[in-house]
Design brief:
Elements (H helix, E strand, L loop, with lengths): L3 E4 H11 L4 E4 L6 H9 L4 E4 L3 H15 L3 E5 L3 H15 L4 E7 L15 H5 L5 E4 L6 H12 L6 E7 H5 L1 E4 L18 H13 L3 E5 L1 H5 L3 H11 L2 E4 L14 E4 L6 H9 L2 E5 L5 H4 L11 E6 L13 E4 L2 H15 L5 H21 L10 H11 L5 E4 L3 H9 L8 E2 L10 H11 L5 E6 H7 L3 H6 L5 E6 L4 H10 L15 H7 L3 E5 L5 H11 L3 E6 L29
Parallel strand pairs: 2-3, 2-4, 4-5, 5-7, 6-7, 9-10, 9-12, 10-11, 12-13, 13-14, 15-16, 15-17, 17-18, 18-20, 19-20
Antiparallel strand pairs: 1-8
Length: about 575
């Protein structure tokens, strides 16, 4: 392309458009005025003004998870950039591609403690895949191209670009849309075929094979390969929290979520399998528990992940495979089909045992609710029954999240959006905003707790202002519910600073912002309330009153392993 003379701000916008950016979530500030002056006239990029920078990062994260492309957020220097940190750390831990643009004081003032200066480059370094501090206007085209390339390749993640005011204001001759990428950045996505063959052989010869599917299956677009492999092998599938949707949860081979708040039978299947294929997961403590000797103790462990740093980091495995999950599963399927290895009678026995345990443990779970207090699971089941297969559910963090993980039946990938690694309260609502912007024709519901929602509820204004009709369903118990549950079970019911005391009338709060609001005091009222919310065409808040003693059970206690779940005392199968 011929050289053109443009300001730094104009270069940024031109390169964003070239990268396919259609939406940016942000808040302007003094050092970004040159950029926002260009955005004022821009028609191809929709800028959504958020009410807090953390929400901008979460919205970009939610947008990325639904759209399959990078989300973009923008914040000014100093406090604007530091407010992004929580959202960027969240996206980074969950491998969500986000590109953050932050303003910075002029290059000559960096290090002088100028007004609204913060060392965004060093602050963000531990929580980003890569970051840039741009010091020359002429460097902008290559930096922006590389930022998007890095964010959206290999293990996807967060890239931050720090933009000093003089770099944005400066004018220079540049060639736009460069193609070159960093010489040293070459992510390995092709798995070793010797290793995939070994894995396939182990799975084919196993009597009790099991697949553990993580969020990497969804990110890689490998859900069809996962389903086919499970059916071919006769192997059941358990998922991580981030893996919900990797296989339809109504599929006969799906045992649901494993781990700390996982299904009894999912955890037991891990304990009893003789071959475990873990794909696109990092073996986090919330999946394995802390007693690692209780995690698949008799199994040959196969681990497929695109990030070599995750191999043997938490769990020592027998067959490591570094590469793209979709390619790895495809290689295994090709080998198995070539050998025409089908399940034997021993696998039929294993499958029958899994089915019997699944049915029996479901009956046991009904006995662990506190009598007369726990309606939270009923509310989630109601939401699950009302929403269609394409609807998108986001969650806050805490009891509401785990109830949703347990009882919401996810049918398709990228329709269950939650904060996995960081466990960020306040994530679900702004993530729902990003999800709805990415998929405006789909219903989007945030399953929230009252504590979480009050952290980011100011962005109801963003929804109204920009016609983003998400629905927030609040579990209202006036407690930080998950912390309270731990205090009840492990700290002699000493509820230290977990009671929220005064909470707002969420219906009036919604109406104050111009949203639809309705209160639900009985589970049977929820169906009509949800339909009313959708029919209103407005952003909506449904205030669901739940018992303060509701508990998410079963669960692994602190320091425990998969075999010591609380709430399984009446179950004869663990």
């Amino acid at each position: 392309m011929a050289r053109v003379k443009l300001s730094g701000a104009e270069i940024v916008v031109e390169e964003l458009k070239n990268e396919g950016v259609e939406v940016a979530f942000g808040i302007p500030g003094g050092v970004l005025l040159d950029l926002y002056d260009v955005l004022y006239e821009e028609k191809e990029i929709r800028h959504i003004l958020m009410r807090h920078e953390q929400c901008a990062a979460h919205a970009a994260d939610g947008y990325a998870r639904v759209s399959e492309g990078p989300g973009v957020c923008i914040a000014t220097s100093g406090p604007g950039a530091t407010n992004l940190v929580t959202g960027l750390a969240n996206a980074s831990m969950d491998s969500s591609p986000v590109v953050a643009l932050t303003g910075q004081v002029p290059t000559a003032a960096i290090g002088s403690n100028a007004f609204q200066e913060a060392s965004t480059f060093t602050i963000s370094m531990p929580i980003t895949k890569h970051n840039f501090l741009v010091k020359k206007t002429s460097d902008l085209p290559k930096v922006i191209h590389n930022a998007f390339y890095i964010a959206n390749t290999g293990r996807k993640g967060v890239v931050l670009i720090d933009l000093p005011k003089d770099v944005l204001a400066g004018v220079t001759d540049v060639n736009l849309h460069p193609k070159e990428t960093f010489v040293g950045y070459k992510p390995n996505i092709k798995p070793n075929q010797v290793q995939t063959k070994k894995a396939a052989e182990v799975l084919a010869n196993a009597d009790r094979p099991l697949i553990l599917a993580g969020g990497g299956v969804i990110i890689a677009g490998a859900t069809e390969e996962l389903r086919y492999l499970a059916e071919f092998l006769g192997a059941s599938v358990v998922t991580t929290l981030m893996g919900k949707g990797a296989i339809p949860e109504g599929h006969p081979f799906c045992l649901g979520m494993a781990g700390m708040h996982g299904h009894i039978y999912a955890n037991r299947a891990i304990n009893e399998c003789d071959a475990l294929l873990a794909v696109g997961t990092r073996f986090s403590d919330r999946t394995t528990g802390w007693q690692l000797d209780q995690f698949a103790p008799d199994a040959t462990l196969i681990h497929v992940d695109i990030d070599a740093a995750e191999i043997n980091k938490n769990i020592q495995v027998d067959i490591p495979i570094v590469g793209d999950v979709k390619l790895a599963l495809s290689d295994m399927i090709k080998w198995l089909e070539k050998k025409k290895k089908t399940e034997g009678s021993s696998k039929s026995v294993w499958a029958q045992k899994i089915r019997e345990m699944h049915s029996a443990c479901e009956d046991c779970i009904k006995d662990v609710r506190s009598p007369g207090s726990s309606i939270s699971d009923i509310l989630i089941k109601t939401i699950s029954g009302i929403l269609d297969d394409d609807a998108i559910v986001t969650t806050e963090v805490g009891q509401c999240q785990m109830f949703a993980a347990h009882y919401y039946m996810t049918k398709k990938p990228r329709t269950f959006i939650s904060s996995g690694g960081l466990g960020t309260m306040g994530f679900g609502f702004p993530a729902a905003i990003g999800a709805k912007v990415a998929a405006p024709d789909k219903k989007v519901v945030d399953i929230a707790g009252d504590g979480s929602f009050m952290m980011t509820c100011q962005d109801l204004a963003t929804c109204v202002e920009n016609d983003i009709p998400v629905v927030v369903c609040i579990f209202h118990n006036r407690y930080l519910g998950m912390v309270r549950q731990w205090q009840e079970l492990f700290f002699d019911k000493k509820y230290s600073h977990t009671g929220l005391g005064i909470t707002p009338d969420f219906v009036k709060l919604a109406e104050a912002f111009g949203c639809y609001g309705e209160r639900v005091e009985k589970p049977e009222e929820l169906k009509d309330a949800l339909n009313n919310a959708f029919e209103s065409g407005k952003p909506a808040v449904i205030d669901m009153v739940v018992g303060k003693e509701d508990k998410v059970l079963p669960m692994i206690p602190p320091g425990g392993g998969l075999t010591g779940m609380i709430g399984t005392e009446k179950c004869k199968h663990v």
